[in-house]
Amino acid sequence: MQKEKNIADRVFLPAKLAGISLSNRIIRSATNEGYGDDSGRPRPELADFHARLAKGGAGAIITGFSCVGEGSRGINHQTMIHKDEFIPDYRKIADRVHALGTPIIMQLAHAGRQTSRAVAGARPVAPSAIRDKVFITLPRALSTPEIERIVSDFAAAAVRAKEAGFDGIQLHAAHGYLLSQFLSPYMNRRKDEWGGSLENRFRIIRRIIEECRKAVGYFPILAKINASDTRKNGMRPGMALEVARLLEQAGCDGVEVSCGVVEDGFNTVRVPRIPTEAMLEMTDELRKLPGPLKKVVGWAIPHFAARLEPLENFNVEDAALIKKKVGIPVIVVGGIRRLADIRKIIEDGSADFVAMARPFIIEPDLVMKFASGKSVESRCINCGYCLLGINRSPVRCYYGKLPKR
Description:
This protein is 39% helix and 12% strand. The chain is an alpha/beta fold. The protein folds into 2 domains: 2-268 and 310-389, TIM Barrel, CATH 3.20.20.70; 272-306. Strands 3-4-6-9-10-11-12-13 form an 8-stranded parallel beta barrel, surrounded by 6 helices. It has a two-stranded antiparallel sheet with strand order 1-2. α1 packs across α13 (339-348).
């Protein structure tokens, strides 16, 4: 019993992440909140959203991804950080969260090919012109000057995040977005200095870290990476380990371990059953189908949409592999729902910090419930509706039920 208490104390004792002081080791992992206006400016409700997480006891908050430049948006109503005029709006968010004693880290990203022309405002771009099976549009391969422009966009975004009072940034190099695309041999088939060897595929991230350091000096820079996906010649744990080593060598201050790309289906976000009804209702393209065709598609979805298992703790083993080989802090995310599992992850040294996304949607105060003994597991049922509903409205929990029309 005493040993269990000590383990619990480690979870809820203050800790340092890249010099950032946290009140505990449970982090809110980035998920798109959907509170950007048409221009990408954060709406006032976003400050309220993050304040609820801070009041609820999260050790730190990593925001949903803010897009770094024109053409980088992946979903309507994502926030953007590509203009100086948005800094005061972000400063209100940081000030609100800091007043509650919680650090906040801005995730920076570019959607790459995982978007549409309508959302991005232009033809999507990617390392190589390879069609995404979900977004359909054939992306345009980036030129070297365009890549360098994207590097500059990330560095400029880091400056804005720092000026807005955020405690650090996280580069989104997971889930099939642009930086993840460069890392993956499946999506990056270039023959120049940006493709081929892992060192070349990593080059854009190294350049981003270099330019961020020049622009902001010492400022915590984290990265989120995939340990794996299901694509042929995609990311695998051994490759992810090498990426983590390269990140450390490049001066990255910490790595969050996740998995999956959009083409995988329900991999990054895992579900006990395919949410066919939600897909038909919450996906604009499917909702508009004529009745008979919609029925056929509804029948086909469970037969063709991929669903992976296990549903819980599915990145812990890969995070532990990375943790053994790097000196920077390791965060693990993915299906973590129970306090007992969090304790074990920390006790075993599988990761330094544990992150969650969906559990915080249904319970912003989950960490406080854990710490007080009021709860030992999340109420999240892994329905996946929140993932689909973001296409239509700000993120919220549907608890497996379709919204009333």
